[in-house]
Specification:
Length: 394
């Protein structure tokens, strides 16, 4: 199979979207901004515990094309829905209809707060990041909109500040109390590298992931948890509770020995949640070192251990995700290095590292066995680490 390069994919998406913009708004766009989704190699739910994560941007992205207006109105359209959002750009920009527009109103409101004040504009957006798959489709919308606001206003934000304002938008306009990982990697991702992020200091370390012999396979289980809703917030407060009992600022500061010594002071569930975070932080730092040195024999087991920990301690996997990971584990001889659920959990995708030579075969076997056993058709794709958000010069 020949892979399209990322640039070619974005170019094709851009050509198509520009034509649609011209048809809908009667003129050509003059600004374009792109922001990718992400996959997390390891380090799950550690971000809001001030810990470490190791995500990379993926070759699936939100693209927005736009042209300015001579008033301060914004007209937003998307290729995903028929309805349009129309609102005034001013200091009291708030939530509104249609619901999807809140992912875009939020970043605009906080850009305004930071002095990034674009004039009114017409915009059309398109996203190739699957929604609800745990690949940060919402962060890619938010970061793309903030990047467009920078382009139109001709003012640059510090990328970390941009990620933080998009995270605030997710909290207040989308209602998810997320950590910083998704917006951060969408804003700061680098081609050919994963990023080890210290979610307390916001320091990053580039971790090369450009070995031609290794690929990243993402498989969407296409099965969401029926109960998904408040679980993310619940996990977050359980972690905060554990940190309080342990007398630390965040679980990042706790050791396994401290946790074991305090076992009698907390219930089993709180203990297990903290156990996941403390061990996951350790695995994430070790995994970054292993990836840096191409030590796949160390990296693989860390990924599988992360999955086990999410399954048993943090309890965020689904039977379908467990199945995908165990099917991958059965194929070590064919070239699977490691595999685990990725993202917030309760459905979504697995991330699998495999040797390039048999990657297509591995992907096909996992998918056909998964479909046989569940009756659900999964969606797989191979990706390389992509560039973070950027403007396209027109
Ligand atoms: C979601 C959140 C992130 C992070 C992950 C779990 O993607 O948006 O901040 O907490 O879940 O690692």
């Amino acid at each position: 199979m020949t892979r399209m390069t990322e640039n070619a994919m974005i170019q094709e998406q851009f050509n198509d979207l520009s034509e649609k913009f011209e048809r809908q708004f009667g003129r050509k766009p003059s600004f374009a901004a792109v922001a990718p989704g992400r996959v997390n190699i390891i380090g799950e739910h550690t971000d809001y515990n001030d810990g470490f994560v190791l995500p990379m941007a993926i070759e699936r992205q939100t693209l927005i094309v736009a042209d300015v207006r001579d008033d301060n109105e914004v007209r937003l359209r998307t290729t995903a829905f028929d309805d349009e959002a129309v609102f005034e750009l001013n200091d009291d920009l708030s939530k509104g209809e249609p619901g999807w527009s809140n992912y875009l109103r939020g970043p605009l409101a906080y850009c305004f707060e930071k002095g990034i004040k674009p004039s009114g504009f017409d915009a059309l957006l398109d996203s190739t990041v699957p929604t609800g798959g745990g690949l940060s489709s919402s962060a890619s919308l938010e970061v793309a909109m903030a990047t467009l606001a920078e382009a139109i206003s001709g003012t640059k934000l510090d990328p970390v500040q941009k990620a933080l304002l998009c995270q605030k938008a997710e909290h207040n306009f989308a209602g998810t109390p997320c950590g910083i990982m998704d917006q951060f990697i969408s804003a700061l991702g680098e081609e050919g590298s994963a990023l080890l992020i210290d979610c307390r200091s916001y320091q990053t370390r580039q971790v090369k992931l450009d070995d031609p012999n290794v690929v990243v396979i993402i498989i969407n289980s296409n099965k969401a948890h029926e109960l998904s809703g408040g679980e993310y917030a619940e996990r977050r407060s359980q972690c905060e509770e554990a940190a309080k009992i342990l007398g630390v600022k965040a679980l990042r500061d706790a050791t396994l020995d401290q946790l074991k010594a305090a076992k009698d002071q907390m219930d089993d569930v709180t203990f297990k949640r903290a156990h996941h975070i403390i061990t996951e932080n350790d695995r994430t730092v070790k995994a970054a070192d292993a990836l840096d040195t191409g030590n796949y024999l160390t990296l693989g087991p860390l990924m599988f251990a992360s999955h086990e920990s999410m399954k048993n301690d943090f309890e965020i996997t689904t039977p379908e995700l467990d199945l995908l990971v165990s099917l991958a584990a059965d194929m070590a001889e064919l070239g699977v290095i490691g595999s685990r659920m990725t993202g917030g959990g309760f459905g979504g995708c697995t991330v699998t590292l495999a040797y390039t030579q048999n990657a297509e075969r591995i992907m096909d076997i996992i998918c056909s066995k998964y479909e046989q056993q569940t009756g659900v058709k999964p969606s797989p794709f191979i990706t390389r680490p992509a560039q973070g958000a950027h403007q396209i010069q027109l």
